[in-house]
Amino acid sequence: MFEKSTWIRLPRNVVVGHGVRNEVLGVVNDLHLQGRPLFVTSPTPREVAADPIAADFEAAGIEPAIVTIERATFEAVERVIEVAEAEDVSYLVGIGGGKAIDIAKLASHHLDMGFLSVPTAASHDGIVSNRGSVPDGDSRHSVAAEPPLAVVADTGILADAPWELTTAGCADIISNYTAVMDWRLAQRLKDVEYSEYAAALSEMTAEILVDNADLIRPGLEESAWVVTKALMSSGVAMSIAGSSRPASGAEHLFSHQLDRLAPDAALHGHQVGVGSILTAYLHQGGDGIWRDIRDALSSIDAPTTADDLGIGDETVIEALTTCHEIRDRYTILGDGMNERAARDVATKTGVID
Ligand SMILES: NC(=O)c1ccc[n+]([C@@H]2O[C@H](COP(=O)([O-])OP(=O)(O)OC[C@H]3O[C@@H](n4cnc5c(N)ncnc54)[C@H](O)[C@@H]3O)[C@@H](O)[C@H]2O)c1
Ligand SMILES: O=P(O)(O)OC[C@@H](O)CO
Ligand SMILES: [Zn+2]
Asked: Which residues are NAD(+)-binding (predicted)?
């Protein structure tokens, strides 16, 4: 008897384009959301987006509560939950980069409230995903949550954001190549649950982005459009899979470990991009696609070496040899690399000198 079943949860409205920041209130009305919102943001996104959106709400007689977070931690999630309860809000709006959106996502899940995702940077593929990613001591939790009810991505804001945030988003997408390799490997060796549709969507998203690399240039609003569509598509792949597997393999383990060893040294997307060069080499050897990944990253100004990341060579080796422990996710790293092997791959790919 066939007894399989699945829930695929996706946003109802996705609004992308120039000036759509002014449409957040319209989206709220379209979703029939009542009551006060709580805006979850961080300092610069507050200035560029949260305060102007709050002014639109105030003009319509709704006074949003606002909480500003600095880091993605479980303490920040708890703070947002406390403010939401104290201010008696009915829904949340995450306004900012990946961290603000993750915190809003996790808090709204706990509160059993809907949330809207308003990215101010095209820097990560958590914009529409159904996961929140938060470090916790020595490990990393990718927590199941609901995807946003709606996404409002203003390409004017995204194009004005610092260019490296956009290149980080591109690199987060390019890393899908190796994430899917790891997923297929884990399916073959460990029989992990696998979705051909989610894997194909994730790979196709990376291919379309790389094919359009010429359009991705600083100051071009069209770049923000191309990258944001890719970030959404990758997030949808995660929602179809019900896990971050289509977009997160060993290159993400490497990045999560760097977050612990060298906090705030580099952006998430840039770290996973360099990780992807390394793990592509581990999967396929010297003749495989590691050079294509490196060249694609380089063509959009994303880092390809430890130096570019501002991270020391020895930290890269430590991350490579220990990152398999960070979470229970089978990848090409298996039960861990030894130091000689780590130094070998990092040197042969030019990630370290
Ligand atoms: N949930 C998921 O599926 C998912 C997917 C990918 C990444 N992530 C998580 O997202 C985080 C990475 O996101 P990130 O790279 O956006 O980091 P981030 O949220 O820390 O943002 C980077 C910096 O850019 C600033 N910023 C944002 N918009 C700006 C603007 N318009 N102008 C100027 N500055 C602006 C932020 O305030 C922050 O200081 C990581 O914690 C990662 O694990 C989650
Ligand atoms: O589950 P994690 O490893 O946090 O991955 C989510 C996201 O960063 C994928 O691009
Ligand atoms: Zn990522």
From this structure: 98-102, 120-123, 129
The ipTM, to two decimals, is 0.98
The pLDDT of residue 134: 86
Question: What are the structural domains of the chain?
Answer: 13-160 (3.40.50.1970), 163-348 (1.20.1090.10)
**Per-residue buried b or exposed e for 300-334, using 16+ beta carbons within 10 Å of the residue's own CB:** bbbbbbbebbebebebbbbbbbbbbebeebbbbbe
d(CA 53, CA 39): 9
- Confidence (pLDDT) at 137: 78
pLDDT tens for 105-140 read 999 999 999 999 999 999 999 999 988 988 887 777
Q: Report which residue type is found at 143.
A: V
Question: How many residues make up the chain in this entry?
Answer: 353
Ligand 1 atom closest to Cα of residue 172: 6
Spans of the chain below 50 pLDDT: none
Is the sign of the CA dihedral 135, 151, 56, 62 positive or negative? negative
Residue 48 CA: which ligand is closest?
Answer: 1
